[in-house]
Write a structure and sequence with these properties.
single chain, about 30% helix
Length: about 70
């Protein structure tokens, strides 16, 4: 996809960083914001919400990753 960003440095506070030091890994974000639906507040904000139309995209990303791994 032309919207994919590879090797993007991120300072997210995740334990994943330790796992990825030990085994080959990938970490990705699915954009869930949508100003038209007022789903543009940051995490931990009382009005945080997501655009649920993004959920199928996240599911497809996971499925394609699994399929690629299993078919290698």
């Amino acid at each position: 996809n032309e919207k994919a960003i590879v090797n993007y440095a991120c300072l997210a506070g995740e334990d994943f960083a330790e796992f990825s030091r030990r085994v080959p890994s990938a970490f990705y974000f699915v954009g869930t914001g949508n100003q038209e639906q007022e789903a543009d507040y940051p995490h931990h904000h009382p009005r945080f919400n997501i655009d649920e139309d993004s959920l199928p995209i996240g599911v497809e990303m996971h499925l394609r990753t699994v399929w690629a791994f299993l078919n290698r």
